[in-house]
C-alpha cells in the first residue's frame, strides 16, 4: 500500500510571490535592503499617500466643514448684495445726465468704477463747504467765503456736477484776492442764487 502524502494547500500566486520575495530578502545584506524593489515601491507608495493626505487636509482646511461652507456662501451673497447696492442704477444716472452732470467724463476719471463714483457722490451730501460758504457770505466774511467756494469748486468738478461747479467757480473768481470794499455784491448775489438752485437740485437727486 502506497504511503499517503500529507495534504499541502496550493498557495495562490500572490502568496507564493510574497514567500519568494521573503526568502530573497533574507539573503540580501542588511545595507542593501533599502534598494530592493519592494522597499522602493513601499517608499514611493508611502510618499504619495502622505502627499494625498496633506492635500486632503489642506482641502478640508480651505473648504471647511459643512457649516463653514454655509457661512462662506452667506458671506459671498452679502458681498454680492453690497456690490449691487453700490452700483449706480440707470435711473439715477439718467437723472444726473438730464440735469447737466458730466457722468461719462466722471466715470472715465474713476476708471469706470461706478461703485466708487457712487460712494463719493453720496459723501457729497455730508460736505460742509456749501454751508460754510453761505454762512460766510451772510456774515460778510469774504476771505472765508473764498476758501469754502474754492474747495466746493474742486469737489463739484471732481464729481462732474457742472451746474454746481459753474456758479461756484464764478463766486471763487469774484472773491479771489478782494477786499470787502472791492467785492461786487450784486454779482455775488446772482451767482449765489444760481448756486443755491443747482445745489438744491442735486441734493434732491442724490438724497433720493
Can you describe what's shown?
This protein starts with 12 loop residues before the first helix and ends with a helix. 74% of the residues lie in helices and 0% in strands. Helix 7 packs antiparallel against helix 8, helix 8 runs antiparallel to helix 9 and helix 9 packs antiparallel against helix 10. The chain is elongated and about 115 Å long. By secondary structure, the protein is an all-alpha fold. It contains 10 helices and no strands.
Keywords for this structure?
208 residues, mainly alpha, 10 helices, elongated
List the SSEs and their pairings.
Layout: H1 13-27, H2 37-63, H3 66-85, H4 90-98, H5 103-109, H6 114-123, H7 129-139, H8 142-158, H9 162-175, H10 185-207
Helix pairs in contact: 7-8, 8-9, 9-10
pLDDT < 50 runs, ≥5 residues: 7-12, 30-34
Portion in helices:
over 70%
What structural class do helix, strand and pairing data support? Answer: mainly alpha
Query: What's the story with the biggest beta sheet?
Result: none
What is the global morphology? elongated
Number of strands: 0
Report the portion of residues in β strands: under 5%
The first-to-last residue Cα distance is 115 Å
- What's the helix-strand series? HHHHHHHHHH
- Could you tell me the radius of gyration in angstroms? 41 Å
Mean pLDDT: 75
Tally of helical runs: 10
